[in-house]
Each structure stands twice: as C-alpha cells, then as structure tokens.
Give the backbone structure.
Amino acid sequence: MGERRRRRFGGVRTGVAALVTVGVLGAVFAPSALAEISGSGATAAASAQSSASAAPGAPGTGSMAVSPRVAVTSAGSWNAAAAASFWTTARLDAATPGDAPRTAATTGYRAATSASIARSSHFAGASSTGIIFYASKDMTTHYCTASVVDSTHGNLIIMAAHCNPGSWMAYVPKYQHGAAQQPYGIWAVTKVFKDSHYTGTAATSDYDYAFAQVAPNGEGQEIQKVTGGNWLSHPTTYSMNVTALGYPKITADSADQAIRCHPNYPTSRLSGYRQLVLLCTGFFGGTSGGPWLLGFNGNTGYLVGITGGYEEGGPNSWTSYSPFFDSRIFTLFNWAESH
C-alpha cells in the first residue's frame, strides 16, 4: 500500500486541486479507508430517465463486496507468446462486441435536446485504454473496451462485468484496426474478478465492473510499466466533467477507431440507481468498459467511471451510464490485487 501511495503522489500533486474542486476524494491516498457516500451533493443535477419498461432496482442492492469471486481463469500455459500466436490480425479484426447493441435512436431521455448532447470524435487512442478480446466455445471472437488501472503490481485492467469474457482472453492497448503489429503488443489476460452481487440483472447493475489480471509480456514487463495506468478514484458527487473513451463496433462506426467525448462533459445521476449518466454521441456496442476520466492528459487520468451499469451501459449510442465508484469497487480492487 505504501509503495502505491508513493508512486501515485507525483501525479496527484499536479491534479489534486482540480479534483477537490469537482468533489473527488483522494482515493489514491487511502482506498481502504473510504466510506460510502450518498451522492446528495448532486441533487441539483438533472436525473436521467430510461425508455425501458423495466423498473429501476433498489440503489446499491446488497452490501459491500465482501465476497468477490474469480469469474474466469485461463490455463497456466496462457501467456504473452500464446496470446500473440492465437490473436492473429484476422481474428482481432473479426471480433464482434461482447455487449448489447446500442442504436443511434434519438428518443428516451427526458427533455433531451441536440444542444444538450455532446459529440464524440475519433482520435489515435490512449496508451492506457484498449480492447479486451476473447472467444466463445464455438470460436466466435468478441471484444469490449478496457483500461489499465494503477495498482501495486502493475498488472490490472478494468472492464464492465456484463462483457462476460470467455477463453483465450487478451488485452490490446491502443488497438489499431488491421495493424500487422499492435503499438503496445498483445497481452494475455489470466484472471477476471467480479463482485458476487452482480448477476446481470437491472437490480444488480450498480456492480457492473470487473478487474482482470494481465500476464507480463515476453520481456517480463508488467502492463502498467509499458502503458501507464489510470488512478482509481472515489468521487463524492454525481456531477462531474469527464472525458469518456471507447471502441465502437465497426458496423456502426466504419472508422473502427477509438473515440472520446472530450474535453470534459457533465454527468448527472441516473434516477433509482447509484450510477452516472453522460450524454455523448457515438457510444455504440463495443464501448462498454471504456473509462470515464478526470484530468485526462492524453494517455491517463483519474478513473471515476466506466461505461456500464443499467441496460449494459445505456439504451442508445448517445446515453451512457456508469456505476458510481464507492467503497465497494475498492473492496473488489483490493481483492484483485491480492489474489
């Protein structure tokens, strides 16, 4: 714990003033000491309403993540060399989103207007953000967005729990479609951790996050050493200005390139849930698990959310949700670090 605090302190010194302004506690200093918050400071923010017929579940169903679970474990022989051999350029390019499809519909958000919806843009990508790929038993390949999290051992990424990865898991930072060689390589993912309360239902969607361990590359380096990592942070309000990243499916976005909602667009609270809402275009299927960041410097930032939660992250391509990062996610994070 002490080593992580020392490593993070350099980045905190330059950004802490801005984080205090928007209501983000120093989770990077002492995550184990964080208490749950009510989010009452966001009552002035507009609440999002979903067009789905399912009624919202009770906010924060269940207690803290006292029983995290290992959701997926790879074979002992699964390493960087095996991942690079299995995930050919053709397999990477053929993968389809592992999350629910999100349409470009323009209905379902109360009082939404074109002026209230931000516009995402394509960009070259961030070193800390990429795609987690996996294959099902029938060898159909899938993917979701994921990102590296600053951790003690430097080997953790975060993703949405609903992406439900299977076998031959690999993480590709700053993924480039059709590239013969990926800029940061292909990394074997060996283990995925989820909160035991998450079952894929609306009532448990506040727990729609997962951490995964990544094996070292062929040179023995941990992923964070190569790409950098985002600082898992504990906001004290649902009202923040974030940068959101993701990789939308090629059938909806022919560029097959990373997108970002930047610079800094406001979030509010999803009524009935401990979740954030962001209105920004372009977040089609495939973007689930993408990071929501404060203080984004082009590669890393302070992680305050990921695309996920109710309706697997939103009902359409311009309404996105994120679980609120309270003490429960830190319990899972600490479990993933030590197991």
Notes: The chain has one domain: 2-48+60-338. The radius of gyration is 18 Å. Residues 2-48+60-338 form a domain with the Thrombin, subunit H fold (CATH 2.40.10.120).
